[in-house]
Amino acid sequence: MGVGAIVGTGILTLIGVGAAKAGPAVLVAFVIAGFVCACAALAYAEMATLVPASGGAYTYSYVAVGQLAAWMIGWSLILEYSLVVSAVSVGWSGYAAPLLHDWLGVPWALMNGPHAGGIVNLPAVAIIGGVAAMLIYGMRSSASVNALLVLVKVSALVAFVWMAAPHFDSANLSPFNPFGFAKSTGADGVERGIMAAAAIIFSAFYGFDAIATAAEETRNPRRDLAIGIIGSMLACAAIYTLVAGAALGAVGFRDFADSPEPLALVLRRLGEPEAARFLALSAVVALPTVILAFFYGQSRIFFVMARDGLLPRGLARVSSSGAPVRTTLFTVLIVGTIAAFFPLNEIVALANAGTLVAFAAVAVSMLVLRRRAPDAPRGYRAPAAWLVGPVAIAGCVYLFVSLPSTTHWWFLVWNALGVALYCAYAGRARPDTDHAGEVRDG
User: Fold this and answer.
1) Contact at 8 Å (CB) between 429 and 310?
2) Nearest Cα to 197, choosing from 411, 80, 28?
3) Inter-residue contact 48 to 210 (CB < 8 Å)
4) DSSP alpha helices (H): ranges in 260-324?
5) Is residue 436 part of a domain?
6) How far apart are CA 91 and CA 287, in angstroms?
7) What three-state secondary structure class fits 379?
8) Residue 218 three-state SS
9) How far is Cα of residue 280 from the mean position of the Cα atoms in its chain?
């Protein structure tokens, strides 16, 4: 689940967006984003084994800080998971659309939103509906399909490195850093720089947090969650380094900057159209693993918040297979509408804002509980917690500041709405679950 969530739209689609903002120095952006995510992952691993309950950052914040903070983090998680599902669906459509047009003659206008001169992005909506059906059917069957698709996706990336690496030319990496380090706005009004790229491709690394939402459906959460979170981060860091280095060394970054299918485009530029078609087909087959992981996490966030009474309790009902059908269908309505009409880069930037806030909150929760409950049973303890925690918090804040200015405004509007809903409804809720007891009782 972790590798399926992390390896996806970030390397298959967002490498083009990152290259447009940082040039070959997008490699440095990957390192920075990965380092911040690694620190957050260590905090997540500790909190997931200390509080092995569904809800991820929402539940950890409830335990460590209280209901209001938990509501705001849950509200940010709703933003993150909804927009990630929408973003990956749009990225999936970027690879699927050429195949659907060539094979079935589907009009371009029905496979692109208004921002790209189309009417509606129907492939993105269709894949969201398909993944939702899998989750409603049951997570155990979904996990088996997920494992197979992860294998397909990783195999395609290995094949890409195998074919692109022999074409490596160091001249393609010069100038290495054409747009500088800090975020800056060019004459064309576009924000560029290594940190501007890192703030966007940050989403290439997160996904491990979706593992934490599965705590209540894990056989041995105090052991398995730490293995899943840290193991998936290490595996994906190695994959990203190889793929990004091969792509940037094989062709000039301007050749695939802002492309909806950058890796397939690289292969076509290298005279490998059949390999490009295989990669596109693999992305079409395998990107749903990312959608599945985040869709799963989103429905569980809704479920736990509804169980606590912060959302209508009717959303917490589950089917005979144990799936929260109502929250899944409600999520389909939200993420399907966003995917149908909005562009990838804008969706990802706003999703990252919610994620960065949630990651910082997990690091804060870890430090608070290290002080408040130092002897509580932890299946995993983050090394050098008083260094890792502040680094994760500071890194998330810096990346948040480096997001586009319009994203800051939209995030402010989203949180203003969240505060209003809390005051009107959620603030009067009394949870069925004793979250503090989850730490006391281990």
Assistant:
1) yes
2) 28
3) no
4) 262-269, 273-286, 288-307
5) no
6) 8
7) coil
8) coil
9) 20
The residue segments making up the domain with residue 97 are 2-429
Residues 214 and 296: their CA atoms lie apart, in Å, by 8
The residue type found at 410 is: W
Nearest to 244 by CA among 198, 285, 301: 198
Chain-centre distance for alpha carbon 165:
27
What residue has token string 């094989």?
250
- 191 DSSP 8-state letter: E
- The two most distant CA atoms of the chain are separated, in Å, by 63
- pLDDT per position as a tens digit, 95-117: 788 888 888 888 888 887 776 67
List the CATH number of the domain containing 391.
1.20.1740.10
Residue 441 domain flag: no
What confidence tens digit (pLDDT) does each residue in 376-404 have? 888 778 888 999 999 999 999 999 998 88
Mean pLDDT of the chain: 81
- Per-residue tokens: 121: 């992005």
3-state secondary structure of 121: strand
What does the pLDDT read at residue 430? Answer: 58
- Tens of pLDDT, residues 121-135: 888 888 888 888 877
The answer to whether residues 294 and 5 touch, using CB atoms and an 8 Å cutoff, is yes
Looking at the domain assignment, is residue 109 inside a domain? yes
* pLDDT surpassing 70 at residue 10: no
Region of 59 on the Ramachandran plot (φ > 0 left; ψ -120 to 50 alpha; else beta): alpha
Number of structural domains (the chain) is 1
Task: Give yes or no for a contact between 253 and 19, defined as CB atoms under 8 angstroms apart.
Answer: yes
Residue 358 domain flag: yes
Confidence of residue 442 (pLDDT cuts 50, 70, 90): very low
Q: Is the pTM of this model over 0.85?
A: no
Amino acid letter for position 27: L
186 φψ region: left (φ > 0), alpha (ψ -120 to 50), beta (else) = beta
